[in-house]
Amino acid sequence: MAGEPDTRQEGTFSTCSFAIVRSDVLNDAMIKELCDQIDLHGGTCHLDNYPDDRLDLDNVTHIISATTDFPDYYSALDRFIHVVKPTWVTVSIATGKLAHPRKYSPDPNLFMNDVVATCVELPQGDADAIAGGILAMGGNYSFKLTSQITHVVALNMENDVCESIQEKNLNIKMVLPHWFDDCLRLGKKIDEGPYLLPDPEILNPPLNQAPSCSPSRKHLSGATSASPSSTKAPSLNGRKGLRVFKKKRILLEKDLQISDVLRGVLNGMILASDGTVVDKASEADILVCKYRDGQNYNYATAKQKDVGNLAWLYYLIIHDLWTSPLRRLLHYPLPKKPLEGFAGLKIGLSNYSGEARTYLENLISATGAICTKTLKQDNDFLITAHRKSEKVNAAEEWGITVVNHLWVEESFAKWQKQSITKSRYTHFPTKTNLGEVVGQTEIDRKVIEAKFLNLDAIPSETLPGRRRIQASTKVNSSVPPSESSERGNVTQTPVRLHSQANGKENGTPATEGSRKSKTAAAVKLQEMTPDIALFEKERKRVGGVVYGGRRKDDPERVEPGRKRSAEPAEPAITTKKTPKRQRTGPTPVEIRLLISGYKPWVGNAKKEVNDTKKLRELGISIVDVPAKATHFAVPGIVRTPKFMVAVAYAPMILTTDFIEACLSADELVDPSDYELVDKQKEKEYKVKLKDALQKARENDHKLLEGYSLYCTEKVSGGYETFKTIAEANGASLAPYRGRQMTISSRRVGEDDAETANEVVLLSSDTAEDKTLWPKFQRVAADSRREPFVLLGEWLLTTALRQEIQPFESYELTKLKAK
């Protein structure tokens, strides 16, 4: 009314124009509230009227959406328009400035986007790694406890923050840092349950009980197969009509191989929803086809039209809700040829059930591999959701490669066989069933354009300037998608293929909108730079976010045995006292310290946390894996698994007095003054530690490379212990339970004819193990190998002395295979 003061606040959103996308999560009531807030703070907004109209992207700076599943999402990315969740508006108003849009992106690849975390009493290096990982994966990090915090990361409850959260019953999850480590290794957000303080399940002794699974149906519903088994169109269940096809022009390709009756029914549904059925790709908004091949497919892909398969079309009909055909792997047309390296592979499944199993069976078949119903010795791979199953035991015994489902999903998405040396494919969190994250991998747009778009298959008159476009595509796709994410560019901007718009080949009009896009691109890159830099710095830490370390080629890494420089700095020639320079960042790590048997920490977790933090400030990072250690502190020579494995990696071995000395002096003392000398144990074990470490450096953990070792479950120390020690020294070791099996006829990489046929079973001398010896000898004889049944002591002594011990002293039987 006239005379009423204008309550609009200029500033926060005065330069912004918003489009708001409706969804199940973002309903009309919430949209009205958002519009009121935006209007109050100087912005303008309008609603996405899909399916009635497409968004007018020329006049939009931000799109507010709870999901990326709306038709204009990729077009918005191409124009560098920010897509943010509704919380971005709230945070921007609260802070009085535009919040970082990337931290509020609904992109599912940024799987930490609903996490706001803080760390409590963690070593600085681990806290930095967690912060970097969260920010890179779309989350937020705070250095103090605020009302926005969703997760507190701590090692125990013995701190004021966790105690306060528990007392006040705040809705904040307190988790071990191991949760972030496992999430970042897998590239997926897993359930926090097993990691929650005060009693995290993963710290309990391992049980034989398999982890349970409650997979999310939203990733698999209607997407378990690329070819619906039903020959009938999906039922509308009494609904009045569809809206999802309104104002859409749809081409049903001939390669769908559906009957005329079914085609007629589908055409009727499209027409009834105010859509149009067309015969030419040039007239279509949507192409539905079976294969990634043909003139229509290539034309639609080049023009960035929506291309999906029949399963995707059925999904749209059933849900009457838009979803991108790239969102689910089996909603996109299939390649005609098998994936290179997969044709003929025999792949088994274990611990997946229901829709997840059906989906993986069809995905394996889509690669050209064979999904076997039962596991046999001739299988190449076993895909499992966790390691606690009889199939996994059998696969290990038979030497079959065991991986999780991410390996086949990402191989299919990138259409390139992924290396199983990537830890994400062989990582199985102890208490997590990976079935809960099945189906979350998406088709990579850059891969589609780089590997399947064939512009030569399109008549030149239908796509002017095609050669220029093809060249542009190849240039932009020269970097594999996996590498771009590893470089910190997690939100990938798809290659934009410009059609002829102004009579010039591949031309883009120099409009105000294009200039704005370029400016927005520069601003967005500048905004992302701090997060990318922090993540890149912390990504290089060996061992993830729980146990820090440096790569061997890191110039700041201290090699084992290297002494800290004791040379004083040259004094400055000045008459004035130079003020002490303030530390601007964490102390560089000079020592990666593995610790075993340090008594002051036994039963005193609080002291361990405090001491660990103090040591980190002195330049000492505590690690838990021997392969990452430059130094190893231990009371004396012991034949524990940790000690035996550590010897293979040849760190400088110190007494635990080194820890006390550093803490007492509040500085990093010279580690060479604390090298371990244990004459009594050296005499007992008949080993010289110094000589063993020198041999280990020469062996480069390849002492037993090529050896075929097997182990009974009753061997003293246990199979897992022996497997760890064997692998640290370059050998493969499989369990032997007396099953029917085959042994390769020759040791891999062995050229010595006299020893090439040796095969070793490590055993105890119990009556139960003795029954296995004849079976093992027969199996070896069938493979023309010479069997040796040895005490497990042979491996322990070999590993400790770092030289292969003669078999004779450890043979449990002198019987030869007949």
From TrEMBL:
Pfam families named in the record: BRCT, PTCB-BRCT, RTT107_BRCT_5
Cellular component terms per the entry's GO annotation: Cul8-RING ubiquitin ligase complex; nucleus
BRCT domain boundaries: 8-106, 106-197, 337-414
Gene Ontology biological-process annotations: DNA double-strand break attachment to nuclear envelope; double-strand break repair
Xref: PROSITE patterns: BRCT (PS50172)
Biased composition (Low complexity): 221-235
UniProt feature, compositional bias: Basic and acidic residues: 550-567
Region Disordered, annotated ranges: 206-237, 466-521, 546-586
Recorded superkingdom: Eukaryota
Name listed for the protein in its UniProt record: Regulator of Ty1 Transposition
Species this chain originates from: Lithohypha guttulata
Originating gene: ESC4
